[in-house]
Amino acid sequence: MDRQPVLQGERVLLRPLRRSDWADLFAVASDREMWALHPSHDRWQEPVFRAFFKDALAQSGALAVVDLASGGVIGSSRFQGHVSGAGGDECAQPSQVEIGWTFLSRHYWGLGYNAEIKALMLEHALRFVDRAIFRVGADNVISRKAMLKIGGRLTGESTVEERVGRPVEHVVYEITRDSFAAGPLAIA
């Protein structure tokens, strides 16, 4: 699976993140209010965001989100943790990829941009894997509502990760090939 495709929708273009995107992306990320409910609520700070940006480049699955109308970078998302599936018939592990680390300028919140981004990423990913997973901070009400809105199903899986000097629980949502085909983001 190509984790850095170029994907175009009606309003956004997703393309591989580049080092040269730093200034534009930090201009978006430096909005303190954008991170208020996020587990990494300090990501608006330049040194913290610089580490996030460096990791995004190193993971080779990061995408810049470009607004087609303005040509400006308005956010970012990632494909990460690709598992091609393994095991025999009885213990087969489904192939999967994680979609996440998505953030958008607050000017684009509530206007369907996140849904368009996720639809493009899911349509691409589910051609290669059985399911896409999303790890969401258990207390991140905005992201949890967004997951339900795009057809995510809470799996009962969770992880605990260190964020801002404390353990933070993340719950796992999934969208499978079948649920995507029948869900709110299905592309005809």
Structure commentary:
The protein is α+β, with helices and mostly antiparallel strands and 188 residues long. The chain has one domain (7-182): Gcn5-related N-acetyltransferase (GNAT) (Aminopeptidase, 3-Layer(aba) Sandwich). The protein is 27% helix and 33% strand. The protein has 5 helices and 8 strands; from the N terminus they run ββααβββαβαββα. The chain has an 8-stranded mixed β-sheet, sandwiched between helices. β3 (62-67) and β4 form a beta hairpin. The longest helix has 14 residues, at 46-59.
Task: List strands and helices in order, with pairings.
Layout: E1 7-8, E2 12-16, H1 22-29, H2 46-59, E3 62-67, E4 73-83, E5 96-104, H3 113-125, E6 131-137, H4 141-149, E7 153-163, E8 166-176, H5 177-182
Parallel strand pairs: 5-6
Antiparallel strand pairs: 1-2, 2-3, 3-4, 4-5, 6-8, 7-8
What is the number of domains? 1
CATH second-level architecture: 3-Layer(aba) Sandwich
| CATH domain topology | Aminopeptidase
Largest sheet: 8 strands, mixed
GO molecular function, one term: acyltransferase activity, transferring groups other than amino-acyl groups
Keywords: Transferase
Domain N-acetyltransferase: 12-178
Protein name: GNAT family N-acetyltransferase
